[in-house]
Design a protein that fits this description.
The complex is a heterodimer of chains A (401) and B (437).
Chain A: H1 4-13, H2 15-46, E1 57-64, H3 71-84, E2 88-94, E3 104-109, E4 119-127, H4 131-135, E5 139-142, E6 151-152, E7 162-166, H5 167-173, E8 183-186, E9 189-197, E10 213-219, E11 224-231, H6 236-250, E12 254-261, H7 262-305, H8 307-315, H9 320-356, H10 364-390
Parallel strand pairs in A: 4-10, 6-10, 7-9
Antiparallel strand pairs in A: 1-11, 1-12, 2-11, 3-4, 3-8, 5-9, 7-10, 8-9
Chain B: H1 2-15, H2 17-45, E1 56-61, E2 80-81, H3 82-90, E3 97-108, E4 117-124, H4 128-131, E5 136-139, H5 144-148, E6 153-157, H6 158-165, E7 174-177, E8 180-188, E9 211-214, H7 216-221, H8 240-245, E10 249-256, H9 260-279, E11 290-294, H10 295-301, H11 307-337, H12 339-347, H13 352-388, H14 400-426, H15 430-436
Parallel strand pairs in B: 4-9, 6-8
Antiparallel strand pairs in B: 1-10, 1-11, 2-10, 3-4, 3-7, 3-10, 5-8, 6-9, 7-8
Classes of the chains: A alpha+beta (401), B alpha+beta (437).
Chain lengths: 401, 437
């Protein structure tokens, strides 16, 4: 019915063209399936939930150079001023901005250093009792810091003694018991766990443990500090534009830098991955177009070469649909071989990438999906020229060149 | 003869404008995509200081006791402790050397017109300017004497000088950094650095610092570190003094060794230093390890070229291969259609070689057009990269090497694609076509 055998024999007469097409389809399948996998990986990384209401929060950095005030007292005054500003929901001092790519991390252990014990790498923020509300974090258990637990100091002798940690970290350090009320150690500093946060992310989304985070109620700002402010999403732009003046009005011997929304901080941390994702999308789009064009061009050429042959077939009684199906079947045959080769190439390329780079194994679903897409695309590319071929008049057969 | 071939090629181009344009477009897209990713790669990989990149070495020492691990591939910390850096700097060895740390300040001047702002600074020993070939616009670096005395002096960049002093010779002026006064003693010329190779810890493509101050000020004025500080064991560090004495690593150290002998001597010296420290109770480990990496090795070691970039370059070349297959198919179609004409030419006495050459010239011309349009497309692509990621603004550009290699790659690709069709067409047996005419 599909006349596979004669079509195959006809194909064998113009091997090179078919072979080139086959090769193109194979390479396209290999590239597209791997690129699509990397894109999907990037997309899920870029769009992950952080646990913060990012569009309501902004942060800025203060560098104090005046020496007629003490920085920790000044920062307390600033905090109070920030909270009074119209449109501000809450504000807090924090040692580093979450999601921004800069921060501190250390091992949190269940035993005081240097005693060995179960420990986990944890990113921590020095902040105060307003952090939870400002960052919009939800507690799974326990409570927020009391005002009395927040240590505001300018000497290194005083230390905090409580902490709030994430559920992930709690489960890791205390797999069999409830972590609430237990003590963890940052070096030899004992910190009692008073609260457990449901879910949040630390400064580095690319970290091996982005979810292991601890808040410590301790403010020792030295000469520079970081503030986070939560506002109504619609008020944020207005506040970020006036915040420098407000801060300088409070005390002017300082510099305010890096005023930006939490989403902006995240975007700039992720910019390289966004770029890679965009470049890959452009690459595979153009690639598919080029391959489609190649199929289109080659079919057109084949038809012009076989005009007389097609006319003869039509004259002998072939229907238009038979001519169309001839080209479709021919293309499907080339495409199928190409796809078989392409799937193997995709697997090999995937393995190569996995060996040399930190990329997971390519799931077969991506290869199958790509193969189906390429197949459909090739049929679409052939359909136009095939219809043109079907319209060749039978009378052409009666003429010589 | 060649001119004649060009003429023939141009005629042939005009005769089949659609197919020819398609081919040019295919090459142009292939070149555009490849050159975009290759340019970024090329800028990242280019040697930042070719005249002495093999003489500058970043020094690493394995200071951790046995059983501790680091995240680098050979387990070595990237920086040195303050005490090791100071000891190595003071040691009596041959060749320039420097210690440095990144810091930063709020800046203001006596003038009211400049609003206070903040900038990063490099605290370093005076060898920095010679070793990394930084030139002076005005003034000079600080002396060894000033380095030892922790003199409050500063060298500023041309850009900062523009902002603070409207570009005038500012040597002798006073600027305030975190409320302390410093005398400007030099202004450096603009330093067009693509890769900040001397400090790869915090963004390899960040701009160089705009201020340089004596390293000894770090201890004298207890400056904070704007770079990385990493500890590897538990230490009770509550004061700046304790930090200077600690095993935390936060100082970068480079040496300039001009020949193999100097390098070998320095290696011997490093080993002896570590053994001596071991006797004093540090370096509790079986094997003493140090490492000297030159500029290019250091960039490779620090993965300046990211994984993503390598993957992109590889995929782009595969993309180019698809374009090549595409062109090959179209060329085959185009040339074979012309077989009757070639038959006549052959019958009239053109040799196979001449026919072959004629077709290669035609293909090369297509490649040249494609390459030129490809450069335009690549510029567009690089513009897109810069728009998407301003951190890459200094890297996402084409230098002269890349501009020249675009048409070369295009023409080579096309000639490769054209070899088979041209060979096929020059084999044409004239008799067949003469008969059917």
């Amino acid at each position: 019915m599909l006349e596979i055998k004669p079509i195959f024999h006809a194909l064998c007469r113009s091997k090179i063209g078919a072979l080139l097409l086959l090769l193109q389809i194979a390479i396209t399948t290999a590239i597209v399936s791997n690129a699509a996998f990397i894109i999907e990986d990037k997309v899920s990384y870029l769009s992950q939930e952080t646990g913060y209401p990012e569009d309501e929060i902004f942060s800025f950095h203060v560098m104090l150079f005046g020496d007629d005030v003490s920085s920790h007292q000044q920062f307390e005054l600033d905090e109070a001023m920030l909270r009074r500003l119209p449109g501000v929901i809450d504000a807090a001092y924090i040692s580093n901005t979450p999601l921004s790519g800069s921060g501190s991390a250390s091992d949190f252990s269940i035993n005081p250093a240097p005693e060995p014990g179960l420990s986990a790498r944890t990113s921590y923020f020095f902040t105060d009792d307003h952090a939870l509300n400002t960052l919009g974090l939800e507690l799974a258990a326990g409570r927020n810091f009391n005002e009395s637990e927040v240590i505001v100091t300018d000497n290194n002798e005083q230390r905090a003694n409580v902490t709030i940690i994430t559920q992930v970290l709690a489960d890791e350090l205390f797999p069999d018991a409830d972590a609430l009320g237990k003590t963890v150690y940052l070096g030899d500093i004992a910190l009692k766990i008073v609260g457990i946060i449901k879910k949040t992310k630390g400064p580095w989304l690319k970290d091996s443990r982005p979810d292991s985070v601890a808040l410590i109620p301790y403010i020792n700002p030295n000469i520079s500090g970081n503030f986070i402010v939560r506002t109504d999403a619609s008020q944020r732009a207005k506040l970020t534009s006036t915040i420098e003046d407000e801060m300088l009005k409070n005390y002017d011997k300082r510099v305010i830098v890096r005023v930006r929304g939490l989403d902006e901080a995240k975007e700039s941390y992720m910019a390289q991955d966004t770029l890679m994702m965009r470049m890959l999308i452009v690459l595979i789009t153009i690639l598919v177009l080029v391959t489609a064009l190649g199929i289109f061009g080659l079919t057109l050429f084949n038809i012009s070469k076989r005009t007389k042959q097609i006319g003869t077939r039509r004259a002998l009684g072939a229907r238009k649909s038979a001519i169309i199906s001839y080209f479709l079947v021919e293309n499907a045959m080339i495409c199928s071989f190409g796809l078989i080769l392409g799937c193997i190439a995709a697997l090999l390329l995937g393995q190569l990438l996995m060996q040399h780079f930190s990329i997971a194994a390519l799931p077969t679903s991506y290869i199958v999906g790509t193969a189906i897409m390429v197949f459909v695309m090739s049929l679409l590319a052939v359909f136009g020229p095939a219809r043109r071929a079907a319209n060749i008049s039978p009378s052409i057969a009666t003429r010589t060149i | 003869m060649l001119l004649h071939y060009f003429d023939l090629s141009w005629r042939s181009f005009k005769r089949t404008p659609l197919v020819s344009s398609l081919m040019v477009l295919a090459i142009a897209i292939g070149i555009g995509v490849t050159m975009t990713s290759l340019s970024v790669y090329h800028m990242m990989a280019s040697d930042p200081i070719p005249s002495k990149s093999s003489q500058l070495f970043s020094v690493q020492m394995q200071i951790m006791d046995d059983g501790n691990t680091w995240w680098t591939k050979d387990n070595l910390p990237l920086q040195l402790t303050y005490k090791d850096a100071t000891n190595l700097y003071r040691a009596n060895t041959e060749g320039n050397r420097l210690s440095m740390v990144r810091s930063g300040f709020s800046i203001y001047t006596d003038s009211d017109t400049v609003k206070p702002f903040s900038k990063s600074a490099r605290m370093t020993t005076p060898e920095f300017f010679d070793m990394f070939q930084l030139e002076f616009l005005y003034g000079n670096k600080w002396s060894q004497q000033q380095e030892e005395n922790a003199a409050p002096v500063v060298v500023i960049s041309e850009e900062l000088n523009e902002r603070l002093f409207a570009g005038e010779n500012s040597v002798g002026n006073i600027i305030y950094l975190d409320n302390e006064s410093y005398e400007v003693i030099g202004v450096t010329k603009n330093w067009p650095l693509v890769v900040k190779y001397y400090d790869l810890n915090n963004g390899a493509f960040n701009e160089p610092e705009s201020m340089f101050l004596p390293f000894s000020l770090v201890e004298a004025r207890e400056f904070g570190n704007w770079g990385n500080t990493n500890g590897w064991k538990h230490e009770d560090v509550r004061s700046f003094k304790a930090k200077l004495q600690s095993e935390m690593v936060w100082v970068q150290f480079w040496v300039e060794l001009n020949n193999a002998q100097q390098k070998q001597d320095y290696e011997t010296f490093l080993m002896a230093y570590m053994e001596e420290q071991q006797k004093r109770g540090r370096f509790n480990r079986k094997e003493l390890i140090y490492s000297l990496r030159d500029v290019n090795q250091w960039m490779e070691y620090n993965n300046v070229i990211s994984e993503d970039n390598k993957i992109l370059v590889a995929l782009s070349f595969m993309f180019l291969a698809v374009c090549l297959a595409n062109i090959l198919g179209l060329l085959l179609a185009k040339f074979l259609r012309r077989a009757p004409e070639v038959g006549v030419r052959r019958a009239l006495g053109a040799s196979k070689r001449q026919v072959f050459l004629q077709h290669l010239v035609e293909v090369a011309m297509l490649g040249c057009f494609g390459g030129l349009i490809g450069i335009v497309l690549a510029q567009l692509g690089l513009w897109g990269v810069r728009q998407s990621y301003d951190y890459y603004s200094s890297i996402a550009t084409m230098d002269i090497t890349m501009l020249l290699s675009a048409p070369i790659i295009a023409i080579t690709t096309c000639i490769l694609a054209g070899l088979y069709p041209a060979w096929l067409v020059c084999k044409t047996n004239p008799a067949i076509y003469l008969k059917s005419q």
